[in-house]
Design goal:
alpha+beta, eight-stranded parallel beta barrel, six-stranded antiparallel β-sheet, single chain
Length: 780
């Protein structure tokens, strides 16, 4: 298929005159959003309109004889397609593709006009609309558009399933009168693994690959299926894997496998849904390689095939669902939701990463007749995968195969999740948590460190307790990143600060709870800034390290304090948070020479003073301190000196805290915490090589101000000016403000190739310049 994303005429005010060739407002490239919105206080009304898109196509006489189709992968939300002024179809789902044949309407040798009337409003006639929605539903033709040229007899659809780890069951649907046989090949990395030829009328073949390597998140082995039918050739990638559930667990390739995932919206600052494939791939990479989850839920709608393709390649399990949010409409609305189910399953079922279909409207009430129909639609088109549906209801009707429950019960001091018997009528059915935390504890990147720490710990508690009870098949917590929302939700700026990342995909401490669950790279994040001015009364309190190491060693001014291991309350996690509640440790022994009860009692008294202050010491600490003063003649002045040395620290030299992550006896990562004022700007980019061609390309930039020890400067709210040179343009404002020491931006290519650069300047840091190379279609 040929991408035709360039040179579309756009109007924000549809009229019949535009359909007849009237003036447009601007020439745009797809993916396109009808209205860019600010990072904060985005107005959902600003992008609601009846818009128009128009493109001219030229077909030569030599192109006769083929069949031609237009395919739109995503146009939000009600799209009416016209070709040469005549209505072709209307599609009522902003999250799935639509396709139409235009062969008989083509005017060869002259101009042909493709026109789209696009209703981007929250039209109550179609899902997810009809009531309120806790996310923005941006408008535009925001995914790729294709012109697909096929022979007269062509391959219309292919569905590949793997009933076992060595068998590919391939169903081919043909369109044509030819008696030509169908040739089917399976290969991996250019090596032919299986081959057969079947009668075109049957279109079905089973191929065995005895040495097939199974697909899994740890080893995502992919194969290529090449199908030949006359002059038509189509290629699909797939993997050998089986998915199922028993009464308490998810089974991947026949083995129990705990699902550890996050929810993801498909939006980006400023431009909403409208990004090219490269940024979709980058989000999948962040989930897999940085957050180290093994699964993602595409809430609350099907998402880009580019994102799903990346999940296939990288090894991310996917739970995808039909569009919707709590509301169920009238009968026509329900019929559209059933049609949405059919479109989702048929269009996405060859993605090996998808293990579960969501066939309920997210968090809706029970409607047995409706959900019986959506389940039947999914199973009829794909009997190889189970169905589910996300609900907040306990003991509701279970028409699907798996009970997916949004468990928002954790409040910080109670268990991380509810027991299965309190959620399901029949505990013999499988259950997973589809959302947790989120709105229960919204956390901004610039919140106090205690809130950021608690946010991380709540994610850890839910994960740990869901794993511990052996009743949950998995948990998808809410959510990957912060996102804008409608006025009924979110903070005062209409933003849901629910993410473990901020809107630009910068890490909050909770991100390291997930990153620490794998051993991809050493992880060590300290939740506290370790500055006494951040503590009430200047008393250091308990804090945590998030790490995948075996232990964390603490040093004060290069003197060893103590070694800490994972908090036993998180024993079900692969690597639980490490509780650090003693910053005195062995120092009274090594520095003061204290031993026995003297060391133990003074140590305990100092820790109590650290926690409660000298004026509020518990009775036990007072008694122990008194015993030491009586038996060892410890003077009051000496006690005050010890307090200032090991607890207070006011007016003395600043303290250097060092943390070492130790794995298999070796230090794999070190973090230093010490007051300093030397800041620098760290900028990460998704790519320094961009591809220009039938679609523009984009790069994402994540900015963090750090101190000289590479710690995020969490209190910096600094403006950063952004400059670009070369064939790129900035997306969003030229000046952004760091929030909690973090921000970001995007650039897109402009149609030309060559060298480009982007420079970030702030008043307190040296400028950072990143050089980019913009390559053409055929350049490597």
């Amino acid at each position: 298929m040929k991408i035709i994303n360039n040179d579309w005429e756009f109007t924000s005010h549809w009229s019949e005159a535009f359909l007849q060739g009237g003036a447009s407002e601007v020439i745009v490239r797809l993916p396109h959003t009808v209205k860019e919105v600010p990072l904060h206080d985005a107005d959902s009304a600003s992008y609601q309109m009846i818009a128009g898109y128009r493109k001219h196509l030229l077909f030569s006489e030599e192109q006769k004889g083929s069949r031609y189709f237009l395919q739109f992968d995503g146009a939000a939300h009600i799209a009416t397609l016209y070709f040469n002024g005549k209505e072709v179809l209307t599609h009522r789902n902003g999250y799935t593709a639509f396709r139409a044949e235009i062969t008989d309407q083509i005017q060869y040798g002259s101009d042909n006009v493709v026109t789209v009337k696009l209703d981007t409003t929250e039209n109550a006639a179609v899902p997810p609309f009809g009531f309120v929605i806790d996310y923005l539903t941006y408008g535009g033709i925001y995914r790729n558009v294709y012109l697909d040229e096929r022979p007269q007899d062509y391959i219309e659809d292919v569905f590949i399933t793997t009933p076992d780890l060595h068998t590919a069951d391939i169903a081919v649907q043909l369109n044509g009168e030819s008696d030509t046989k169908v040739s089917i090949e399976i290969s991996q990395k250019g090596v032919l693994k299986a081959f057969d030829t079947v009668d075109g009328k049957s279109g079905h073949v089973i191929l065995k690959v005895q040495d097939a390597k199974p697909w899994s998140p740890e080893d995502p082995q992919l194969y290529e299926c090449r199908i030949l039918y006359g002059k038509d050739e189509q290629k699909y990638h797939f993997g050998f894997r089986t998915v199922a559930f028993n009464d308490h667990a998810f089974l991947l390739n026949g083995k129990e496998y705990f699902i550890r995932g996050l929810n993801r919206h498909q939006c980006y600052p400023y431009i909403g849904y409208a990004v090219p494939d490269s940024l979709q791939v980058e989000d999948a990479r962040i989930l897999k390689e940085e957050l180290c989850v093994n699964a993602v839920r595409t809430s609350h709608y099907p998402q880009s095939h580019a994102f799903l393709d990346a999940c296939d390649r990288l090894g991310l399990l996917v739970f995808t669902e039909i569009p919707g949010w709590q509301h169920i409409g009238d009968e026509a609305w329900k019929q559209q939701a059933i049609e949405n189910t059919k479109e989702m399953v048929k269009q996405y079922r060859n993605h090996v990463s998808i293990f579960l279909w969501g066939v309920r409207i997210n968090e809706s009430l029970d409607d047995d007749a409706f959900y019986q129909a959506t389940n039947e639609a999914a199973h009829a088109l794909d009997a190889s995968r189970p169905t589910s549906g996300v609900r907040y209801l306990e003991k509701s009707s279970l028409l699907e195969d798996v009970y997916a429950y949004n468990d928002f019960s954790h409040t910080g001091t109670n268990p991380g999740c509810k027991q299965k018997k309190n959620v399901l009528k029949d505990t013999k059915h499988p259950m997973l948590i589809s959302e947790a935390n989120g709105h229960m504890f919204p956390t901004k990147s610039w919140d106090r460190w205690e809130r950021l720490q608690e946010h991380a710990l709540r994610h850890a508690r839910v994960m740990n307790d869901a794993m511990a009870d052996h009743e949950h098949a998995g948990v998808f917590q809410w959510c990957m990143f912060d996102y804008p929302t409608h006025k009924q939700f979110g903070s005062g700026d209409r933003t849901c600060y629910h993410g473990v990342l901020d809107s630009f995909r910068n890490e909050k401490p909770a991100a390291y709870v997930y990153a620490s669950q794998e051993d991809v790279a050493p992880v060590l994040e300290i939740s506290s800034p370790m500055d006494i001015g951040d503590y009430d009364g200047g008393h250091l309190d308990t804090f945590y390290a998030f790490t995948n190491a075996d232990e964390v060693r603490l040093y004060k001014n290069n003197e060893f304090v103590k070694s800490f291991r994972a908090d036993p309350r998180f024993s079900s996690m692969v690597h639980g948070p490490v509780k650090i509640d003693d910053t005195i440790g062995d120092l009274l022994k090594t520095k003061e020479g204290f031993t026995g009860k003297k060391e133990a009692y003074v140590h305990d008294a100092m820790l109590a003073a650290q926690k409660y202050g000298m004026g509020d010491l518990p009775k036990k600490a007072l008694l122990e301190l008194g015993w030491v003063m009586l038996h060892y003649h410890l003077k009051y002045e000496e006690g005050v000196e010890l307090y200032g040395k090991y607890v207070g620290g006011w007016g003395g030299d600043s303290t250097t805290w060092k943390f070492e992550a130790v794995k298999n006896g070796k230090v794999v990562k070190t973090v230093l915490k010490t007051p300093n004022t030397k800041l620098h700007l760290d900028v990460r980019t998704s790519s320094v090589e961009l591809q220009e061609g039938d679609v523009y390309d984009m790069a994402a930039f994540r900015m963090t101000v750090k101190d000289s020890n590479e710690n995020r400067a969490i209190y910096v709210q600094l403006p950063v000016e952004i400059e670009t040179t070369g064939p790129i343009e900035l997306v969003g404002p030229k000046v952004v403000v760091l929030e909690g020491g973090m921000s970001g931006t995007y650039i897109r290519t402009t149609g030309e190739t060559g060298e480009a650069s982007i420079t970030f300047r702030s008043a307190q840091t040296e400028p950072v310049t990143i050089k980019l190379q913009i390559k053409g279609r055929n350049e490597k």
